[in-house]
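Collaborator request, handled under Task 6.
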Amino acid sequence: MPKYPALITRLPWLLLLLAACAARPPQATTPGTPPVAPVVADGTKVYSGGEGVEVALVRLADGSYLLRVKGTTSPLDGKVLPCTVDNSSDRRTVYQTTIDGRSYSALHVEHGSSGYGAGVRLFFPGLDLRDGLSLGYDETRSRSVAPAPLREQHLQQLATGELAAIARFDRAGARRRAETGLAEQAATTARACAAPLRATIDWSTIDDATLQSYAIDSFCAAPLEALANLCRSPAARAAVARDVTELACRFGSAMALDRSGKALRWTTATGAANAVDFAREQLGATVRWTGKGNLAERRFAEETSICSGGRDGTLVGWRPARAADKEDADLPHQLFFGTARGFRMVPVEDAAGEGWFFDPRFFAPSRAESFRGLDLRHYSFLELDREQQRCQFTCGTRTITLQLLDAAATARLTAGASFAPPLPRRQPHALARDRRGTYYFVDRGAEPGARDYRLWAGPLGRLKLLSMTNVVSDTRGDVFSTRDGSLRLALEQANSFWMQGKRTTPLLNVPIAENLQLVYNELGVYLGEPFGTPCDRL
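Structure tokens returned to the collaborator:
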């Protein structure tokens, strides 16, 4: 009698089971790798593009996916990568894998909901497309691509460790890429500044998480970009070429920049914002350079020009509209004029173009009546070309040629010179006349909303100031009166009147904007008064 009868009776079944297990291929996994779930029947989708690119997407039983991309020059071409799916947006489904230690959104499938168009886009290493490669669903290939061989290929690549190498963060490779990118920017800046320049990174200040999450070369390159911009100035270019040969970059808690010998020491931070602007301001206003003054002062002097008008001592100038020792990327300019004793600033109209200023005393009938909302017939301008050594200003139809002074003469004239603010100008408020040719003109102070009105009346060229005050001012118009009320002027939108005792004379309203020559030259009210522009010297 056998000792184990039950085992003997079951032996044929056990032998069959062992034979079946021996026939099944082993799970090709590496130690610590979770098992790969079976494929889902009919769970394969294939997307293809016009450039021969094919993407196969295989759904597994546990809800994860396998992704294979073919037809690219990427080193990952043909690899069967594990994927998770992000369905958090109702606009798209995103399939993500891990590359170089980071989650990588490789395939975007748009749903066409909420007003967005449907479509599929591939983002993959080696594809130099910011917006991804457009693909379409390939029904024929989806039926013909079998999912099981893709899973087996995935298992084989797992076994060799190549998929783990793809997922693992490559710090050495990331360092090389960052150093290459920074070196390229250093070479660009070196050309702009006509100086040898190298850049280094203190890697001891950068951990793996920072290296994986941020473009290190971009953070470190901010001062180089700022220098390239500053070196458009000959004065700044000369200073940089003399004083800088190296940029040393490190990461810290806040941005900082200084100069030590011929090295710029740049500390950047992951939370830094507007780093190029910060670096430019530091390089221009804070960092000390060999010789007198900072870069902002040197550029201010370089951007300041003075033209001489000859025997009468007239000087017309152009300088940056900022503090001399403060850096400003935009470098807007100011117009000024005067003599060696002092200058006065002139308001300019940027909408008209550089150097244009309002002076309605001079009229140029051939200019545009409407340009960006301006009537250029009433504007004059300074034309200054440093390259051609030409300087002239035009008032109306008259052009005066000046001599552009050299840098030394300009520095002597501006050193310690006074620059008075623009001359206050009274503003025309209203103009009317009767049918006999008597004009009634009102102006007010230069400040917006000023109510210090003056009233003038009389024939053309002989208007006299009247002692009248404003007693009514509303949306319908104004009423001016003498103290005893014997004289009144009512200026209204539709009808105006001059009242003397019981006698009322109707007046015609005269539009000021259409009659600036009349106001400033013919009424006689402003004759002999300076307007605060270089045209005062004519």
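The cover message to the collaborator said: "The first strand starts at residue 39 and ends at 48. The chain has a mean pLDDT of 88. Please let us know whether this matches your experimental observations."
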